[in-house]
Each structure stands twice: as structure tokens, then as C-alpha cells.
UniProtKB/TrEMBL annotation:
Organism the protein comes from: Selenomonas ruminis
InterPro entries documented for this protein: AA-permease/SLC12A_dom, Amino_acid_permease_CS
Protein family: Belongs to the amino acid-polyamine-organocation (APC) superfamily. Amino acid transporter (AAT) (TC 2.A.3.1) family.
PROSITE patterns reported for this sequence: AMINO_ACID_PERMEASE_1
Membrane-protein topology: Multi-pass membrane protein
Amino acid permease/ SLC12A domain segment(s): 15-447
Chief location bin: membrane
Domain of life per record: Bacteria
Protein name: Amino acid permease
Compartments where found: Cell inner membrane
GO terms, biological process: amino acid transport; transmembrane transport
Keyword line: Amino-acid transport, Cell inner membrane, Cell membrane, Membrane, Transmembrane, Transmembrane helix, Transport
PANTHER family: AROMATIC AMINO ACID TRANSPORT PROTEIN AROP (PTHR43495:SF4), GABA PERMEASE (PTHR43495)
Signal peptide as annotated in the record: none
Amino acid sequence: MSEPTKMKRGLKNRHLQMIALGGAIGTGLFYGSTSTIALAGPAVMLAYLLGGIVIFFIMRMLGEMAVDEPVSGSFSHYATKYWGKFPGFLSGWNYWFNYVLVSMAELTAVGIYMQFWYPDLPQWIAALICLVVITAINLINVKLYGEFEFWMALIKIAAIVLMIVLGLYLLLSGPLSFPDNFRNIWVNGGFLPNGWWGLAMATAVVMFSFGGIELIGITAGEAENPDKTIPRAINQVIWRILLFYVGTMAVLMALWPWNKVGVDASPFVQIFSNVGVVAAAHILNFVVLTAAVSVYNSAIYSNSRMLYGLASKDEAPEFLGHLSGRGVPVKGIFVSSGITLICVALNYFFPGKIFMYLMSIATIAATISWMTITITHLKFRKYCKEHGKETKFKSPLYPFINYVCIAFLVGVWYFMLQIPDMELAVYLLPVWLLVLWLGYCYRERNHQKG
């Protein structure tokens, strides 16, 4: 069988919906929300709302470009075409790096969740098993990946809905009547116990939770009928995410005092254990474990596709641009999966200490991707205007909202500097950009020699 020249368009709308939700509803909500609750208290709901609105506008910018030109590699391709070679090189490799970090954070979370049932099980063993299984699934074909992610995402979404319903039942059937049964939201220091400053810092942290939603753009090269499926996926997924995040936080904050949510387990598991629903705690631990595996699955998928897109532009080694007979970038999967073995080693040597560091560096990398999308969209619309071109899925409030999003992302960097566990990631930002620049210069020099 000769090697195919294109990836297979095997992802349907239901796959795209769940892939986007699966990428964005994971460890950031189920485990990372611990730190955001500590920063903002009940106002964490507002932090998720603000972050979600900004991400929606950025997704609409990406969606306009993806519908106009549905290609594998997504915004790296658009950055090269409409902005320049270095921005394209930077955005592609930065996105890959971002999802490598996300992969590591999710593998770390898998180890943490397994210890809920098996306290003596080393984190690195659980991480290694997850890595092997998910890599095998991704190697078969894109349709199997889509089906696996569909059901994994469906489990955690159904669980979130059930959790909200169960939480409301506990609140409404308890000894207190409305509004006293929701009093935890405004007692213990008020709705903004740490003031607007705490809210701003929490908003910077919650942005990690939204990392992965741009995966819709990555799937454009393998989506059936992208003109219809991509706009539908983007428009439908954002309000669901806001419902899940804001609604879930509202129930959690009402059920238990925000200042008693610890860091030994997911807030979801801890709160339901504390109110006496033991079975629910076990079920929720299974769900948060599923969520972490789901996001790791999406990370391996997107990383291999980004490497394929970079190789097709001659910005990555040529062997990464080869597809299997089933249209799968097998070598890209092995490279992306293999490098996350570093996480297995880190969990072996430093168990329980690396999640927050991985989350903060991944957040910085994600903001670079979002910044690139926002600026590239400005260049894209300028190109369309100059060439009299009309697009099918226009981003609203252009160009005003582009500049608002840029200012917001700069603000995220500033407030990350105010958080001790995250400031190192901001200091590493110029170092990382320099590494990318040197890599780009090395590539250009080799091309000139060739």
C-alpha cells in the first residue's frame, strides 16, 4: 500500500464537540481549582466567567481562519501564511511544547487520583500505564481516537451534570431553606474574601483550565464538512464550558466553606466525602481519573498533528511528516508520547511536587498560543480586506476585541508574577522565546546551506 498524502477526514461533529470539551474540562477544573478557590474564594465563579468569555472570542478568531482554510497544523499554518515564518515556527513548536507540559500534568494527576484507592501505589507506575494504553489507542486510526475521546468526555460531562444535580439536592433538602442554604457563598469573608486582587490572580490561574479548547482548530484537517462542523462546535462548546465551570463552582462553594477546601485530593472528592456521600466520592474519583486520561489522550493526538503540520512546512524533521497506511502520523505520536516519559521520571524522583510547576509553565505556553492566534487574526483580516475576500464565519467585534484579548493576556502574565508558585514560569518566558528564535535561526541557516 502506498503512503497516503492526506490525513483521513474521520471526525464527525459529535467527535469535535467532545474533543473540545474533553480538552478543556480536565485537571484544571477537577484538581487545579483548589488553588483558584484559595485565591478568590466564592468569586472563583467570576474568574471562570471572565476567562471563558475571553477564550470564546479567541476561539471565534481561530474558527474564522479554520473554516476559511481547514488544514492540519491550524494556527501555525495561518501564522506562517499571514504573519511570517518565525511566528509560524514559534506558534507551532510552542503549542507542541504546551501540550507536552499538559500531558505531564495530566499524567501527574492520574497518579494522584489512583492514590485515593491505592495509597501505596507509586505515582510513576500509574502514569506509565496510562501512557502506554493511550499511545496504543492513538496509533490505530483517527476514528478510534475520536470514539474513545467521545465516550471519555461524555463520562465526565455526565458526571458534572449529575454532581450539580446531587449538590442542588443536598442544598435544597437540608435543614436550611433558601437563601440560607447557599450562605457559604457570602459568609466566611464575603463573596470576595481576598478582594479584587485575589480575583485577578485567580483569573490568571484559571486560564490553565481553558488550555485545550483551541484543539478544534487542530482537528480541522480531519473534520468532515468543516464549513458546518467547526462553527457549530465552537458556538456550542463555549456556553457548555461556562455552564460546567461556573455552575460547578457555584454548587461546590455553596456546599462547603471555601476556606476548608484542602489540597490532598480533588475538591470534588473531598467535599462529597465531607458531606457523607461516600459512594459519590468514589464515583467522582473515577470521573476525575477519566478526565485526566481524556485530556492526555487529546494531548497526544494534537501534538502528533502539530508535528505533522510543522514537518509539512519543513519546520520539523522530515520523518515526522510521514503517515501510516491508515493516515496516522505514527512517528509523531511516538515522539510526543515518548517525551512525556520525562513526567514518569519526575514523578518517580519528586512525587507530589511537580503539578503546580507544570500547570504554571503550561499556562504561559497556552497564552503564547492565544496571543499568536489573536495577532494572526488581525493580519488575516487585513489580508482579506486587501484582496476583497469575504469569510464564512466572521469573528465578532473585530478589531476591538482583538486588542482587548491582547491586553487581557498581558494582564495574565502580570498577575502570574504575583503568585510565588507561578512567577518562575513568567521569568522563563523570554528564555523560551529565545530558544525558539535560536531554533528558527538554525533551521534557516541549514536551509540556506542546502
